[in-house]
Amino acid sequence: MGNSALKAHLETAQKTGVFQLTGKGLNEFPMDLQRLSTNLRMMDLSGNKMETLPSVIGQFSVLKSLTLNGNKLAVLPEDLGKLKKLENLHLNGNSLKNLPSSFGQLAALKTLSLSGNRLKEFPLQLCQLRHLDVVDLSKNKIQRLPDEVEQLQAIELNVNQNQVSQISPHISRCPRLKVLRLEENCLEISMIPNSILADSQISVLAVEGNLFEIRKLQDLEGYDKYMERFTATKKKFA
Fold first, then answer.
1. CA-closest candidate to residue 180, choices 164, 161, 201, 204
2. In sequence order, which residues have a C-beta less than 8 Å from that of residue 61 and are 6 or more positions away?
C-alpha cells in the first residue's frame, strides 16, 4: 500500500488512539507506528503476511488491545511482556509453536485467543496471569493438560480440536474455571478425571467428538454433582 494511505491511517490513529490496517498484504510491522507508542490503545493488523513482530512492540505502553489474527507469525518477541496494560490479545491463525517466557508478565491480560496455531504443549506462562478470564487454544496440537494447569485463573478454557489424550486431575483445583471445552480430541472415557465432575467449579464440560459415546459420561462417579452445577448455570442464563 502507498505511503499516503499509511499516513492517513497514522493521522487518524493519532486522534483516536486506534490503528487498524487489515488485509493489506503487509510483510512487516509498520515502523512508523513507533511515534504513536505512547497514545495507541488499540492495534489491529489482522490478515497480513507478517512473519515477525519487532521488539519495539514493547514500547506501546498504553496498548489495551492487540489483534494480529491471520498473519504468519512463528515467534513473538520477549518485549511483548512489557505491555502491562494489555487486556485483549488475539493471535488466531498464525504459526506459533510456543510463547515467550515473558508472556507471564502481561499482568492485565483478560482475553487470549491462540486458535489455529502450532502449539504442542499447554503454555505454562498462562498460569502466571492473575486476571485472565477467557483462553482459546482450539485448533492446535496440544496433547495433554499438565498438573500446573491448576494455577490457571481463567473462567473459560477452550481446547477444542487438539490432540489431548491426558488431563491432569489437578484441573479440578482451578479456582475460577467454569467452562472447559475439549471437543474433538483424543480422549478415552477413562481419561476424564472424576474430580472434574465431583469436586470442581466446572459447570459446562464439552467433550463431544472424542473416543467414547457421550452418554458414557453419565456412568462416571460425580456425574450427578456435575449435572447440579450444569442445571443451576442454565437456569441462571435462562
1. 204
2. 37, 38, 82, 83, 84, 85
All three cell numbers of 191: 481419561
User: What cell was used for 17?
Assistant: 488512539
Would you state the cell numbers that stand for residue 73, as one nine-digit string? 507469525
- Rounded CA-CA distance 77/37 in Å is 17
Q: Say which residues have a Cβ less than 8 Å from residue 8's Cβ, sequence separation at least 6.
A: none
pLDDT tens-place string over residues 146-167: 999 999 999 999 999 999 999 9
Residues written for the chain: 238
Q: pLDDT tens digit string along 47-101? A: 999 999 999 999 999 999 999 999 999 999 999 999 999 999 999 999 999 999 9
Query: Is residue 197 helix, strand or coil?
Result: helix
* H-helix or E-strand spanning residue 158: strand 156-158
d(CA 82, CA 153): 21
Mean pLDDT of the region 35-46? 96
Residue 9: phi, psi to the nearest 5? -65, -40
Whether the CA torsion 36, 39, 29, 53 is positive or negative: it is positive
Three-state secondary structure string covering 92-153: CCCCCCCCCHHHHHCCCCCEEECCCCCCCCCCHHHHHCCCCCEEECCCCCCCEECHHHHHCC
With 0.90 as the threshold, say if the pTM is over it. yes
Query: Rounded CA gap, 93 and 47, in Å?
Result: 9
